[in-house]
Amino acid sequence: MTxxxxxxxxxxxxxxxxxxxxxxxxxxxxxxxxxxxDERVSTLGNKGQFNYTHVVSRAAAxxxxxxxxxxxxxxxxxxxxxxxxxxxxxxxxxxxxxxSWHQDLQYWxxxxxxxxxxxxxxxxxxxxxxxxxxxxxxxxxxxxxxxDTFDADNAxxxxxxxxxxxxxxxxxLVELEPGQASxxxxxxxxxxxxxxxxxxxxxxxxxxIAPHMRQAVAAxxxxxxxxxEDRFGxxxxxxxxxxxxxxxxLAWHRRILKAQNDAMYEGVEDAEGKVV
Length: 276
Description:
Elements: H1 2-11, E1 13-18, H2 22-36, E2 50-51, H3 53-56, H4 58-63, H5 67-77, E3 81-91, E4 99-102, E5 115-121, E6 132-134, E7 146-148, E8 160-162, E9 172-174, E10 180-185, E11 190-192, E12 201-209, E13 222-227, E14 236-237, H6 247-264
Parallel strand pairs: 13-14
Antiparallel strand pairs: 1-10, 2-3, 3-12, 3-13, 4-11, 5-10, 5-12, 6-9, 6-11, 7-8
């Protein structure tokens, strides 16, 4: 995994990683869509996202511990790994949903950048279906100012958008086959377009962090220990679900979503000037 760490350090990303067999990835995508369709899941995220999927899905809880993902994250962050979050990103066929240019760590309230996002394709991910685009090396500069647009089609919580002009010729398309994954840095500028195809565009993002990270905005925060030790105790540890959407896992999910929304929406005014 030395080459993964070197590419990640230089470019801010690395892909593709072979994680799941294509059939297994497609089956997992179908399973998570089924869970996402449960009426209880409508309250489990922001703007239709399925946030913290690993907290309520047994299959997602297994995937965040996949050895290939852990080995890649360890090569970048070291032997001790927490999972801070996960999100099932869905774009329905012919959906106008998009993700504007942004940097993840601008909004999470975490105190440093010892984080790796793994994005696992659960179906074919192409330019036509709205794959991600990266700006190579953009994680190396100072954080970019963002503005909140609250655009209804923007899948991000606040419609946040980096206040910068980006030339498409300076970007990299992140096309993936089912079961492949990409890694990106929390300060890498990235975006994705709408889905113009007849199929779903599905991907599960997993956010790995080093245990020395801490929440600097919200009163408390949560994580899952997936490798090594947590010698710092900055996060409350979350158990794996015993069953999909169990009462206990849903209770954990409500606590996590509230706490992390306190960080993401801290001091934010909506499009009408009201504090969220």
